[in-house]
Amino acid sequence: MAEQIVLQGLCNQVKGAIVENGHGMLTNQRFIYSKHSLAHIAVMGAFVNLTRGDFDFDIPLADITEVEETKRLFSKILVIHTKDAEYRFFFTKLEEWKIAFANALEGKSDTEQVQAVPSGSVADELLKFKNLLDAGAITEDEYNAQKSRLLNQ
Questions:
Q1: How many angstroms separate the CA atoms of 13 and 90, rounded?
Q2: Reduced 3-state DSSP string for 74-117
Q3: Is the pTM of this model over 0.85?
Q4: What is the helix (H) or strand (E) element at residue 129, kind and residue range?
Q5: Which tens digits make up the pLDDT trace of 67-87?
Q6: Is there a contact between 27 and 5 (Cβ–Cβ < 8 Å)?
Q7: Do 3 and 132 touch, CB atoms closer than 8 A?
Q8: Which residues, listed in sequence order, are joined to residue 66 by a DSSP beta bridge?
Q9: What is the residue extent of each domain of the chain?
């Protein structure tokens, strides 16, 4: 099955008392986290959240054992558990992320996922694949194949 973006958006990783600004992208195969560098944050301030950040790591869905909601101070966060590690994130639209993770981990088909988390226009889908390409998550050939598929619908 080709890798497809299910959901993406603002996502800040919580490491103890430190919160790193970043961007999350959930595909039907993995969760990708890109963080904003301190230099970008210093230059752009709050506007840095309008950018995608630089690829930091990804977690294959097969490695995720559980995703749970918990509280941190006055906010809710999602904790992604793997057999070897635990990752904590603040997400905008937390409920959408919970649904998307649940669907992805249950192995629901792309059609079922789209019903739970609506996708946008062809332009939005193209942008999602361009972001995957820019993050190094897919190759130029994979991007071109998806672009071709979307434009020929």
A1: 6
A2: CEEEEEEEECCCEEEEEECCHHHHHHHHHHHHHCCCHHHHHHHC
A3: no
A4: helix 122-134
A5: 999 988 778 999 999 999 999
A6: yes
A7: yes
A8: 81
A9: 5-118
Burial degree of 60 (CB within 10 A; 0-12, 13-18, 19+): exposed
Instruction: Count the Cβ atoms, other than its own, within 10 Å of residue 5.
Output: 21
Give the separation between CA 14 and CA 77, rounded to whole angstroms.
Answer: 9
Six-digit token string for 128:
């999602």
What tokens appear for 67 in the block?
């995703």
Which helix or strand (DSSP H or E) is residue 38 part of?
A: helix 38-44
Element (H, E) at 126: helix 122-134
2: which DSSP letter?
-
**C-alpha dihedral sign at 91, 95, 100, 102:** positive
- How is domain 5-118 classified at the CATH fold level? PH-domain like (2.30.29)
Tokens 């509280």 sit on residue: 71
Q: Give residue-wise pLDDT tens across range 12-65.
A: 899 988 888 888 999 999 999 988 765 554 555 555 455 566 788 999 999 999
17 contacts 88 by C-beta, under 8 angstroms: no
